[in-house]
Amino acid sequence: MTLLNISSQFEYLDKYFADKTSMYRNAGWLISAFDAPIWEYQLGTKGVAIIDWNVTLEDGGSLLSPKHKDLLEGLKQYLITSTKNASDMISETNAISSQRTLFDYTGRIIDHLLLNSNYYQLATFGLEGLNENHLIAILQKAGKEDADNFFDWQPSVGSLCIKLIESLPRELLEEILNKHPAMRLVSSEQEDENSLGIAVSDIPYARAALYNQDLLHKFNKRWQIKVSSITEIIYAKTLFAKKRKRPPIATLSYGAESTGNRRECPAVRVTTGSTEQASTKQFSTFQMVLHRIGTLHETGVPAPAPDDINAILSCEADLAKPGRYRTLPSAIALGAVRDAIEFHLKNGEHLISSFCKLAIQSVRTGKSPRAFHGTALSKILRAQTIELGVTKASLMDSDEKRVREDYFSELRSNASLSELVRVYIGSVQIVVGAMMARRSGELIDLKCLTCLDSTEQWLLFLNRKSTTSTFGIRNIQARPIEPIAVEMIKSLIRMQKVLKRIGYIKEMTSLFAVPCSRGSRGFYSCTSENFNRSLDYFCDYFQTAKNNVGERYYIRQHQLRRFFAMLFYHSSSFGGLETLQWMLAHTNRRHVWNYITESMTGAELMSSKSQHVAEQMHHNGLESYENLKQFLRGRYGSDEFLLWDIDDLEDEITHLQKEGLVEIDPDFFEDENGEQMRVVVKIVEHAA
């Protein structure tokens, strides 16, 4: 073998001795020259994509200006390193899908820096100005499952709305609202989903301001934001985020199907923040991608200090405290179940019968139900319904756009048949929801003709989380149901059977379908909005409790899912309560526990356990929790935790469970009275 041949055989090693700057200025996906102001690239897509580096920084200058040369060089090299093979940083990673993921994550971080260039003072200090705290905060934010959370999509739109409202004369906004009154209607569901960071009272003005700026458009008879236009405004200083497709924001939408029905009081927030956290794999990937910014030191490009970069390697995935669904105080849940059952026993049968009799007259005469009032109505309704106080078919006229000031006082004085039927439907939802611990979607999907088995002892539903390996087909599951819940369900089924037989409705539909709230002839299938609205009717009618700032607890099904578990825990300490005995005493406790663990997620169970223990401690409950009190006393060096409200104490106990420091489980045992159960709190001793 000649020396020439030997040399040619080792030519592949030349790239290992190449200039590192050259390595980080070339990528297989980059079509344009590295120094080009606009990049063309192709990475796992059919077409060619573009990156325009002409971004404005906080000093008003372009990223392409000569004074920002180091910053531009660093960002470009950082993006190129994202798809490099970690073993040699020369070749690309093998899978295009992996390259795309790493490229997207890196692009997300670059966009965040550019979008917040004023905070990071990129124009002054460049990437070198990023310190340990900056990098850890970016990692925390990047550890969100949804990219829209990372870029604060809804709060950013809310900030834009506030700016527009403040920039426009109030008279102009009022004029727009008067011309388009549907803009003023904000449903309770839109209130619940409001993550814009603006007050509910400002939502109509936000819509009017967006309309004035041509940032709304009509789609399928419903007005919604122009997502692409707003995205380009909010994320103008980014490379990728300004092109990302996003769904419209429901809170800012309005249209013909909007309802003027509002809740009487502001609602207690049902969540404490975002519940979407990244998986361990996602977090680790972000950690690796952010750490790669340190490779810029190899080419002499200004970058964060090595010690600051390495600090992120010790961070754990549970950095950000995740939001969660706020639990419903057990006293409120117990009271709601009691009120719902009593309302059924006292009024359910005659209200359904009266509604069916009114529907018969509506069909016979061809008149709307609201056409019957006074003496004409009293001749139709059952005597018990009239004695209850009903004087009209509905509290709202068909053309009325907003609820009258006396609406809720009339609601509670039983003046309207239509509203009382909605209260009754809400009562059935409360009882079924509390006793079955099902997801709201599973209850919304229930059909009159198929929700009960032939024995009327089992509830049949489509499992919302059962499509894995079934080609999207959801499994039908059966669960035992209490006789009182069956009785209430059958009254709703009976109502629809009568309505179908007389021709008031064409087909029997959802179990929790609702009559038209305006007293006109109509019956609507159950939707998420209708389902929640029936619960709102119930809460306003029975005036569920308010918190210390005047917000009412408007019950939601995800809270009732935990209630069944709460009943189970409370039965260990309040066995004398008749409601709990009636609901649980006839059932084998281990079987109930198996049902609970099968029906609820680990997070929901943990929350229920924490709520039970927090309530017991807050009300000077069981002495068996003295060990937890001692643990918290040692942890905080005082008894200050005893002054916390129940929600804060619940959050702390949940956090201790997540850390593995506390375990809460039921303990089953036999005594002279048979099977018993107690809730045990165990403090876990970790090895030093």
Helix fraction? 40-55%
Task: Give the number of DSSP strands.
Answer: 11
Distance between the termini: 64 Å
Approximate shape:
globular
State the secondary-structure class: mainly alpha
Radius of gyration: 31 Å
As for the number of domains, it is: 4
The major beta sheet can be summarized as:
3 strands, antiparallel
Give the percentage of residues in beta strands: 5-15%
Numbering strands along the chain, what is their spatial order in the largest sheet? 3-4-5
Helical stretch tally: 29
Mean pLDDT: 82
Given as residue ranges, the uncertain stretches (5+ residues, pLDDT < 50) are 319-324, 398-402, 466-473, 574-586
Description:
The chain is mainly alpha-helical and 688 residues long. It has four domains: 3-145 and 279-314, no CATH class; 153-255, no CATH class; 330-438 and 483-542, no CATH class; 588-683, no CATH class. The protein has helices at residues 3-9, 20-23, 69-81, 96-115, 117-120, 122-125, 132-142, 147-150, 153-167, 170-179, 188-192, 203-212, 227-234, 280-291, 306-310, 330-365, 375-378, 383-388, 407-412, 417-436, 440-444, 483-501, 528-542, 557-570, 578-585, 589-599, 602-618, 626-636, 646-658; strands at 38-41, 49-52, 216-219, 222-225, 254-255, 458-462, 476-480, 514-515, 523-524, 662-671, 674-683. Helix 3 (69-81) packs antiparallel against helix 4, helix 16 (330-365) crosses helix 20 (417-436) and helix 20 crosses helix 22 (483-501).
